C-alpha cells in the first residue's frame, strides 16, 4: 500500500468485514454486561430490576466459585503438562525415520478430529468404565481391583481425556519445529562431544522453545473453556469436584435459570481469562521476540 | 600428533558407489586441500574422516590408531561447517565454550581458553553477542574459535568460505593460512575453488567422481598435471585444451597450453586468429582469440596490451610449456 489514497481505499474496502466482526463481538458482550447487573431469573418473569453488583457479590462469595477456579487451573495446568511433555517425546519419536512413518503420523493426529463429546463418551464407556472398560479389564487380568475412574479420580480422568485430545496438536506443532532444526548444528554438537541428552538440552529444547510457547498459549485459551467433556462424563461431580468456571456458569444459567448470576459469572470468567492472557503474553512475548 | 591415513576407504549409498576406493597419507602438520567439482565426493570423504558418515569399507587411522568405527567426538578432530552451524541461542562465548563444557572442564580453565581463542581471532568485543548479530566473517571466526579451543589433532574445513563475499573470502584465506602457521596443526580443507586450493595448500588432492586424480604440491600440479582433468581444473584462467590436427602434429590426442604460456603479437607468430572478447583486469588482460583450425584460445598478457574486437593477431605457444595427453587423457 504505497500511497495515502490506496491506504484509504483499502480501509474502506475492509470496513464491512471489520464492522460486522466488531458488532458480532460487542453486542453479546454488552448484553452480558447489562444482564449481570439485573435480577433476572427465568423462573420469576417480570421481576427484572437493577441490583448493582449483587450478582457479582453472590457469585464471588459462592464457595463453589473457588473450587471451580482451582479445578479450572488444575485442568489447564495438568493438561498442559501432559501434552507438552508427551508432545515433545512423541515428536522426537516421529522425527526418526522408520517404516510406515506417513501412516503413523496420520494416526497420531487422528484424535484431534474426534468431537469432544464423542471422545469423552468413548473414554467414559469403553475405557474407564469400572465394569466394561478396557482399563478395568486390564486391571482384573493382573488381579487388581479395577479403578472407578470418575468416582475416585474424577478431575484426573477429565485431564486425561482432554490431554488425549490435545496431544496431537502439541505433537504436530513440535514436530514441525523439530524438523526445522539444522542438521549441521546437531553434527557440530556431536563433534563437540555432546551426547544425546546434552544435545537435547542445549540444542533441541532451545530450538523448540518458541513452538512450545505457541502450544502453551493456544492450548490455554481453549482449555480455559473446557465444557463438553465434563457435561458428558461427570456432570461436574461427584459434588463439584470436576466443576470448572465454565461449567459453574452453565449450572447458574441453565440449571438454576439465574441469567443475571450467570452473566456476572461470565464477566468474571472474561476478566480471569484476560489476567491469565496478560501474564502469558508477557511471559511469552519475551520468548517470541527472539 | 595428527597424522591421518586412509586405507582402501570406500563409500556407497545403496548400490551407487560414491567413493570407489581411496588410499591417502596425510602427515602431521600438513595443510591438505581436497579439491574437485561439485558431487565428486570430497565432502563425503571429509565427513567420513570426521565420523559423521559410516565407512562402507576400509580403515581410517589417526595417529596410528584405527578410528574407523569410533564416535566423532572420540577422534579428536574438530570441524568447521559450510553453514558454520553455530548454536543460535548461545552467545559467542557460549558457542566457543560448548566443546569444553561438554568435556567437563573447570569453569576457570574454560574461561581462559575461550578468552585466548577470542583474542587470537579478534572476537574479544563480541563475546556477549549472539550469532544472529554478527556478520558473515565474524560468524566464520566464531566457528573457527569453537574448533580451536579443543586443541584437536586436526581441523576439518568443509567449504568454509563459500558463504562469504569475494573480498572477505580473500581475507579469511589469509587468516586461515596464518592460523595454520601459528598452530602447526594438521588441517584438511575441502573446496571446489581451485584458487583457494592453490593459495593455501601444502598438498592438494584433486578428486573426480570419488577417485583421486592426482596428489601433489600446488606447483607440482600446475607444472605437471598427470591428466587432462587435473590440467583443466588447476589454473585460472583454464588451460587451453586443443584437439585434432594441431594436437596430432605433436603426437598427442589433446594438447594443453596455459594462457600465460602463449605469446601474442600483432605482426607474426605460429597461429593466426581473430580477437574476440577482451577482459581487462588492470594487471593482466585475458584475450579470447578465435584461431582458425585450432579453436578458441585464451591468452593472458600484461595489462598494457591493447586490442580491438575483430583485430588480427598471431599467437605462439612456448614449446617447453606444452602439455601432451594420450587418448586416455593421461600425460605423455
Automatic annotation (TrEMBL), chain A:
SUPFAM superfamilies in UniProt: MetI-like (SSF161098)
Residue ranges annotated for the ABC transmembrane type-1 domain, each copy included: 69-280
CDD domains, sorted: TM_PBP2
Pfam families: BPD_transp_1
Membrane spanning stretches: 12-37, 73-94, 106-123, 155-178, 211-232, 264-284
Topology in the lipid bilayer: Multi-pass membrane protein
Gene Ontology annotations for the cellular component aspect, listed alphabetically: plasma membrane
Keywords from the UniProt entry: Cell membrane, Membrane, Transmembrane, Transmembrane helix, Transport
GO annotation, biological process: transmembrane transport
Subcellular location, record wording: Cell membrane
Family from the record: Belongs to the binding-protein-dependent transport system permease family.
The protein's name in its UniProt record: Sugar ABC transporter permease
Record organism: Phyllobacterium sophorae
Automatic annotation (TrEMBL), chain B:
GO terms of molecular function: ABC-type maltose transporter activity; ATP binding; ATP hydrolysis activity
Annotated compartments: Cell inner membrane
InterPro entries the record matches: AAA+_ATPase (IPR003593), ABC_transporter-like_ATP-bd (IPR003439), ABC_transporter-like_CS (IPR017871), ABC_transpr_MalK-like (IPR015855), ABC_transpr_MalK/UgpC-like (IPR047641), Mo/tungstate-bd_C_term_dom (IPR008995), NA-bd_OB-fold (IPR012340), P-loop_NTPase (IPR027417)
Membrane-protein topology: Peripheral membrane protein
Primary location class: membrane
Keywords on record: ATP-binding, Nucleotide-binding, Transport
Keyword ATP-binding: yes
Pfam families, per the entry: ABC_tran, TOBE_2
Annotated ranges, domain ABC transporter: 4-234
Protein name stated in the entry: Sugar ABC transporter ATP-binding protein
Any one annotated GO CC term: maltose transport complex
UniProt record similarity statement: Belongs to the ABC transporter superfamily.
Nucleotide-binding keyword on record: yes
Domain of life where this protein originates: Bacteria
Amino acid at each position: 500500500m504505497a500511497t495515502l489514497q490506496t491506504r484509504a481505499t483499502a480501509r474502506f474496502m475492509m470496513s464491512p468485514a471489520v464492522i460486522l466482526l466488531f458488532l458480532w463481538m460487542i453486542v453479546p458482550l454488552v448484553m452480558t454486561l447489562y444482564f449481570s447487573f439485573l435480577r433476572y431469573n427465568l423462573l420469576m418473569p417480570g421481576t427484572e430490576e437493577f441490583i448493582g453488583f449483587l450478582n457479582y457479590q453472590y457469585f464471588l462469595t459462592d464457595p463453589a466459585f473457588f473450587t471451580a477456579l482451582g479445578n479450572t487451573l488444575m485442568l489447564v495446568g495438568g493438561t498442559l503438562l501432559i501434552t507438552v511433555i508427551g508432545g515433545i517425546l512423541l515428536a522426537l519419536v516421529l522425527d526418526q525415520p522408520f517404516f510406515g512413518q506417513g501412516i503413523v503420523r496420520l494416526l497420531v493426529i487422528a484424535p484431534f478430529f474426534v468431537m469432544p463429546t464423542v471422545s469423552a463418551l468413548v473414554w467414559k464407556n469403553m475405557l474407564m468404565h469400572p465394569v466394561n472398560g478396557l482399563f478395568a479389564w486390564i486391571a482384573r487380568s493382573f488381579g487388581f481391583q479395577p479403578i472407578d475412574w470418575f468416582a475416585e479420580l474424577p478431575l484426573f480422568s477429565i485431564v486425561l481425556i482432554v490431554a488425549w485430545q490435545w496431544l496431537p496438536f502439541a505433537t504436530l506443532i513440535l514436530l514441525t519445529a523439530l524438523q526445522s532444526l539444522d542438521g549441521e548444528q546437531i553434527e557440530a554438537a556431536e563433534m563437540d562431544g555432546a551426547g544425546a541428552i546434552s544435545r537435547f538440552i542445549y540444542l533441541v529444547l532451545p530450538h523448540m522453545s518458541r513452538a512450545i510457547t505457541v502450544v502453551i498459549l493456544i492450548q490455554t485459551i481453549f482449555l480455559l473453556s473446557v465444557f463438553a467433556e465434563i457435561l458428558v462424563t461427570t456432570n461436574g461431580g461427584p459434588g463439584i469436584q470436576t466443576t470448572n468456571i465454565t461449567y459453574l456458569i452453565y449450572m447458574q444459567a441453565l440449571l438454576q435459570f439465574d441469567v443475571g448470576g450467570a452473566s456476572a459469572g461470565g464477566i468474571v470468567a472474561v476478566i480471569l481469562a484476560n489476567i491469565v492472557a496478560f501474564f502469558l503474553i508477557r511471559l511469552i512475548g519475551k520468548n517470541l521476540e527472539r | 600428533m595428527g597424522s591421518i591415513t586412509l586405507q582402501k576407504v570406500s563409500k556407497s549409498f545403496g548400490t551407487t558407489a560414491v567413493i570407489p576406493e581411496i588410499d591417502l597419507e596425510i602427515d602431521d602438520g600438513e595443510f591438505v586441500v581436497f579439491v574437485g567439482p561439485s558431487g565428486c565426493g570430497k565432502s563425503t570423504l571429509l565427513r567420513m574422516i570426521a565420523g559423521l558418515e559410516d565407512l562402507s569399507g576400509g580403515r581410517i587411522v589417526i595417529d596410528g590408531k584405527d578410528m574407523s568405527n569410533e564416535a566423532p567426538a572420540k577422534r579428536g578432530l574438530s570441524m568447521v561447517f559450510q553453514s558454520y552451524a553455530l548454536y543460535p541461542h548461545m552467545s559467542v562465548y557460549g558457542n566457543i565454550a560448548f566443546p569444553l563444557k561438554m568435556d567437563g572442564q573447570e569453569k576457570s580453565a574454560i574461561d581462559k581458553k575461550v578468552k585466548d581463542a577470542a583474542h587470537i581471532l579478534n572476537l574479544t568485543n563480541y563475546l556477549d553477542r549472539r550469532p544472529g548479530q554478527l556478520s558473515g566473517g565474524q560468524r566464520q571466526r566464531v566457528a573457527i574459535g569453537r574448533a580451536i579451543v579443543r586443541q584437536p589433532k586436526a581441523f576439518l574445513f568443509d567449504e568454509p568460505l563459500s558463504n562469504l563475499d569475494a573480498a572477505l573470502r580473500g581475507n579469511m584465506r589469509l587468516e586461515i593460512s596464518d592460523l595454520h602457521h601459528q598452530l602447526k596443526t594438521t588441517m584438511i580443507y575441502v573446496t571446489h575453488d581451485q584458487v583457494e586450493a592453490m593459495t593455501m595448500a601444502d598438498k592438494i588432492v584433486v578428486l573426480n567422481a570419488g577417485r583421486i586424480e592426482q596428489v601433489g604440491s600446488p606447483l607440482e600440479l600446475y607444472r605437471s598435471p598427470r591428466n587432462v582433468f587435473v590440467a583443466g581444473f588447476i589454473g585460472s584462467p583454464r588451460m587451453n585444451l586443443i584437439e585434432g590436427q594441431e594436437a596430432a602434429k605433436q603426437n598427442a590426442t589433446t594438447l594443453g597450453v596455459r594462457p600465460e604460456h602463449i605469446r601474442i603479437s600483432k605482426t607474426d607468430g605460429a597461429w593466426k586468429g581473430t580477437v574476440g572478447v577482451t577482459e581487462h583486469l588492470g594487471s593482466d588482460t585475458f584475450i579470447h582469440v578465435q584461431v582458425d583450425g585450432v579453436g578458441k584460445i585464451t591468452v593472458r598478457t600484461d595489462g598494457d596490451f591493447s586490442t580491438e574486437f575483430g583485430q588480427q593477431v598471431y599467437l605462439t605457444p612456448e614449446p617447453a610449456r606444452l602439455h601432451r595427453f594420450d587418448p586416455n587423457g593421461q600425460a605423455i
